[in-house]
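B., you asked whether I could sanity-check this one before it goes into the benchmark set. Here's the sequence:
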Amino acid sequence: MTEAAATTKTAMPKGEAADTQDLTDGFHLVIDALKLNGIETIYCVPGIPITDLGRLAQASGMRVISFRHEQNAGNAAAIAGFLTKKPGVCLTVSAPGFLNGLTALANATTNCFPMILISGSSEREIVDLQQGDYEEMDQLAIAKPLCKAAYRVLNAADIGIGVARAIRAAVSGRPGGVYLDLPAKLFGQVMDAEAGRRSLVKVIDPAPAQIPAPAAGARARDVLKRAKRPLVILGKGAAYAQADEAIRVFIEKSGVPFLPMSMAKGLLPDTHPQCAGAARSLVLKDADVVMLIGARLNWLLSHGKGKTWGEPGSKKFIQIDIEPKEIDSNVEIVAPLVGDIGSCVSALLQGMGDKWPAPPADWIDAIRAKREENIAKMAPKLMKNSAPMDFHSALGALRSVIRERPDAILVNEGANTLDLARGIIDMYKPRKRLDVGTWGVMGIGMGFAVAAAIETGKPVLAVVGDSAFGFSGMEIETICRYKLPVCVVVFNNNGIYRGVDVNPGGGPDPAITAFVPGARYDRMIEAFGGVGANATTPDELKRAVDAAMDSGKPTLVNAVIDPAAGSESGRIGNLNPKSGLKKK
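And here's what the prediction gave me:
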């Protein structure tokens, strides 16, 4: 019998030879299948029909982290997948709970995070005839368009295969979200324990290396070698790949300036002499050859065209991606390398030889000058010690915290809080910055913070806007319940974007972007036994966060930001359409 298998023994009928039979059931087979494949943590919200699955998993030695809302549990599972390269598992109840988890599943798929959403469901024979079962819903049909793969298991003997298929689908090729539908009846199905053990599947090499064609590597090296103004863009796919040393050697050997996307920050330190983060506008506009490593030419990079990128046709693109369909998705890619990032970068290195030509000095000097100019412009804003704080002065204080604690994990979401932090807070190690990613979806903060603490054991600093905090703020109780080393800093400027907007109609209701002024978010965590602090100046903020990080105690700091600070939607306000009608 497996470790978690049921110990029920069934006696033979009277008159037959005395015998007993070891049995197991669907509950135990699910747990055994997960543990066999090295999955030791489940993020969940318990309820019908999966409560006992969570209890039994915990009894078997698995860590089961119970949340207050399924979307937050799903976000935790998703970022656990990013951090570990193993699929994070989220367990939910049927119908409404499943739907709550679905946002996180879709977000995981969009961001290429390996995740499995396991949901209990109503019985097929009733659902298919639409007879009105408890929380009746065809969950598999709903999930399919929003994830990489979706499976349903109806027989206990198929649980091993179902879990194996979900794991392989989540991590192979381009990672993503997978849905696994487990109807309530499945859990109670009983079968012979030894047969159950044999039905389990250990997934061998779930994410095999995909080696690029030698000709593709030679083509990419040739294009890069001929460049007069080369640039490498590192995306979060490069961080996920955990090919950190190969990427570092390639960047330094080539001498090419690099621009890290937000979750790739720290692959090489932001203070590295080749980092062009502080000269982003210049390098995007003026580069003649751009190599994308685990980055996509989506909206975050203006789709590779438009005024951000200078004159049309002025650039050649090299792209490393494991997904062939990503190539040429927005612009022509003259040198595609299709394969996993570790294999592709290693292949490039093997052909570079001992003497790779350095990029032209005038290009390097232009970037250095622009970087130094922009850093000098920013410095006075970050050094202000005023009350109330603005975003720059508050983030300047937190920048020092991360510089002094490079092992800490930064979780970041909001509008201005997110957009400005990307450029202000330097990162020094890979996979230490976690944020909203490709969709820009709010509400990831507390789920990401919980999983980061659980999966890494490192202290977590979650810097969130007051609006973003509202999506998942109740999970501070979860942080306190599990006594996690998480410090949450809420940038409180009394509203969405800013807290000074008024009702344009002059009525008694507040503006749609305004919150209760002077709210004290720090008192929320005190209700759950955590530590609260209120900071009105950068010095107070730095002291409060330092104390929290040193103590390892669950802490929430209410950072009072000038209500007039902030712009609508941060740097992407242009995406908000404006009415063409003139006010009368």
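One thing to flag: Residues 1-7 have pLDDT under 50 and may be disordered. Otherwise nothing jumped out at me.
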